[in-house]
Design brief:
Shape of chain B: globular
Strand content of chain A: 35-45%
Structural class of chain A: alpha+beta
Number of helices of chain B: 3
CATH architecture of chain B: Roll
Largest sheet of chain B: 7 strands, mixed
Mean pLDDT of chain A: 88
Distance between the termini of chain B: 33 Å
Helix content of chain A: 10-25%
CATH topology of chain B: Nuclear Transport Factor 2, Chain: A
Distance between the termini of chain A: 25 Å
Shape of chain A: elongated
Low-confidence stretches of chain A: none
Oligomer: heterodimer
Structural class of chain B: alpha/beta
Strand order of the largest sheet of chain A: 1-2
Radius of gyration of chain B: 16 Å
Largest sheet of chain A: 2 strands, antiparallel
Order of helices and strands of chain B: EHEEHEEEEH
Strand content of chain B: over 45%
């Protein structure tokens, strides 16, 4: 699973972070989602 | 919202990224040639693609009428710009508002974006749209 994280630090400690991971791709590869989705 | 850029060059890079994000709201894809290298490298969703044409095609998503982007955090340092954002789409036909959170980072050279990395909450977005089963997976599973 690929991910993208961003961290804000102060005085040598992480005080805030943002994260996104490719949950959709992960679930598709695991066969937990249908191969085809309805159109928007 | 945090917006941080230490010097003029970094501020310029941050402005370029903001203009780039605006294209997704305005659909003015002709602007992209002034913001992206023609061979821009895009890393997203576990895949890597290359080229301005790919980005241009990604600006419009079938079924979505409008897009608004709120920059929740932006950090520019050296040749990089990091953005956390929330994108709100309006669904065609129903007018339903759908939100998509994302994290992006950009590498710039000579006033153009030459490489970008991105991750977005596609699964959450599709769940909000009712296009995947809401019980398909959860953190507690």
């Amino acid at each position: 699973m690929t991910g993208h994280k961003s961290y804000r630090l102060r005085d040598g400690r992480i005080v805030e972070f943002w994260g996104e991971t490719d949950v959709f791709g992960f679930l598709r590869r695991a066969g937990l989602l249908p191969d085809e989705l309805p159109a928007l | 919202m945090g917006i941080r850029a230490a010097n003029t060059a970094e501020q310029r890079n941050a402005d370029i990224v903001r203009r780039y994000l605006r294209v997704f709201e305005t659909f003015a894809v002709e602007e992209l040639a002034f913001l992206l290298d023609r061979n821009v490298i895009v890393h997203e969703g576990g895949t890597t693609v290359r080229g301005l044409d790919w980005v241009s095609a990604a600006v419009r998503t079938p079924g979505l009428a409008a897009c608004r982007i709120v920059v929740d955090d932006l950090f520019a340092a050296r040749d990089r710009v990091m953005v956390a954002c929330t994108v709100t789409y309006t669904r065609e036909g129903t007018g339903q508002q759908l939100t998509l959170s994302g994290l992006k980072s950009y590498r710039l050279r000579n006033g153009l974006i030459v490489e970008l990395w991105g991750a977005t909450d596609v699964f959450g977005f599709l769940r909000g749209a009712g296009l995947v089963p809401s019980q398909a997976w959860s953190m507690s599973a």
